[in-house]
Amino acid sequence: MVAGPVDQVRTLYRTLLVFAAFSLLILVAGLVEFAYFEPPGRHTGLKATIVGVYQYDPDHMATVGPDRNSFPRTVQFAAVVDWSSLPKNVVVDARWYDGFGNVVGSVGPGTPDQLAGQTIVLVKVPPGSTHDLPGDYIFVVERYEGGLPVEVIGRRVVLVER
Question: pLDDT, tens digit, for every residue of 81-97?
Fold first, then answer.
């Protein structure tokens, strides 16, 4: 008995159905993940007041100069946050992320009253280095709930020049 010619259209159609089913599975998994990490109703509309990003003077442990968006590698810098602009019952923290996503400076978590004495959030130079790495640094103020960050309430991007 000799087999007939293979129906190429049927094979392509079945392959297309398998890819479509797999795509739907990926879409559903993404929606479930989104709903888990960004549940509806968690957005409060809070906005943290980031006063600015300034050059940092380690000798006086204070910021100096004007608010800036970029710094040379040789200059230390820090963000200044006005914690009093937030309600007293929220838990927040502030973090600096380098271009690789590493946390390179942080304050908190705590209530605004607990963080009132820590308004300057310094970027720490990586261990074994004397200068910051070049690239974008992101400063983020986050609201916590249940011990986990659930909402970004302030953000600032700073460029460290090569």
Answer: 999 999 999 999 999 99
